Amino acid sequence: MSRREEAKEFNRARIRAAAEDIIRRDGIAQLSMRRLAEQADVSLRTPYNLFGSKADVLIALLDEAECQLSPLADMYPASSAIARLLGTLAGIETFFAHDEEYFRGIYAAIMTSDHHGAREAGVGRTITTAQQMVARAAAQGELRADTDTAALGRYCGIALLAVLGMWGSGFLSISQCIAQTRRTWLAALLHHASEQTRAGLLDAYYETCGKGDANDR
Amino acid sequence: MSRREEAKEFNRARIRAAAEDIIRRDGIAQLSMRRLAEQADVSLRTPYNLFGSKADVLIALLDEAECQLSPLADMYPASSAIARLLGTLAGIETFFAHDEEYFRGIYAAIMTSDHHGAREAGVGRTITTAQQMVARAAAQGELRADTDTAALGRYCGIALLAVLGMWGSGFLSISQCIAQTRRTWLAALLHHASEQTRAGLLDAYYETCGKGDANDR
DNA sequence: TAAAATATTGACACGCATTATAAATATATT
DNA sequence: AATATATTTATAATGCGTGTCAATATTTTA
Lengths: 217, 217
Fold this sequence. Notes:
The structure is a homodimer. Chain A is an all-alpha fold. Helix content of chain A is about 75%, strand content about 0%. Chain A folds into two domains: about 1-50, Orthogonal Bundle (Arc Repressor Mutant, subunit A), CATH 1.10.10.60; about 55-215, Orthogonal Bundle (Tetracycline Repressor, domain 2). Chain A contains ten helices and no strands. In chain A, helix 1 crosses helix 4 and helix 4 crosses helix 6 (about 100-110).
């Protein structure tokens, strides 16, 4: 990395740190570009040079955190592809829950910005991941062979993203949000489960929404 | 209505009309309070006096339209409570689809505003409606008697609202959005269906996501 | 009809994200 | 060491939603 790039990365880090500090100290509403520049000790223009926009700064903050999120998916024993799917969901909850207000603020700010590009990238990534996981489940015989894994994965990804939006708006806590998604995923997966996985999924479904709430045993 | 109230209502109508005109002509991004005031031929302050905020103007636009939405739910034959649930969904699609970009802009703008009160009211109303419809289905024996209708209705309402958010963000068309919701509703309802409704629901489910995509017959 | 209550207006200000411009400064290349 | 290039800086400007407040117009009340 050239000295020029080093200096840029140093400034980027300072700006990220200042942004995080402001959000943690006074809340996302207090994060303005002027204050950010002042606290990071750079000019107003610099964050625009180095990130692009306010939303891009926040996206960088989220990306930084997601480096810590990825290993979390592996935290749960991937005894099966479907267990891995559900484990990822649990990992998301664990990760966001330990710092819920901080992440909610960032997520909401990104979502309410008119910065379409970055959002679409995140949506695409989530859907692709979901599709891959569903495809693996089918490949391992946990779902019936004729399952349209692309459609089912897309359905699951969208369900997660949609409900995360309600988390960002403050209507659901992250745990409510994950419970809702889990229920949606399980209900859908159950319709495609192969014989040997069906019973286990039913148990998981009961666990999510209560025995009295599901009775198709 | 006193003459004073008449004048206010007249101005309100002019402002609504101007807002609609700007949105239709140049898109929601061009709707600023300054331009709105100019086009409605009132002062910049007047929309604030008469509505409260920009978001309130948009909410008024949506409310105005929703008067036409309500009868749509009755458009579909309510042969059963569940048919009525699904019919309402179809009604929402029909209504928004005939003017998709116009409504999408308004919806997105309201959702991305920090006007929490009105949004919460809308969310509450949707969830309550869903709960009532699910309760009616249970009362008529279409769902098993031990179904937790409050939880299931809430689940369905949130699923709809969450996906509508993705419509507002531009990630889904209204028809994709309704298809996703329909699938979620059907998958959940199927787990609570009584014997005599189960077969019909399965058919509806197939219709939504394709035969190859659901195979638990 | 005079007085009081109320609504609208106008000109202003604030803080916001973002962009433009040009000067100053650091780095890279020759 | 001199030149060329990239980046940051300072400053100002644009347009945005919203707020203040006094002045003015209109309606209601006495």
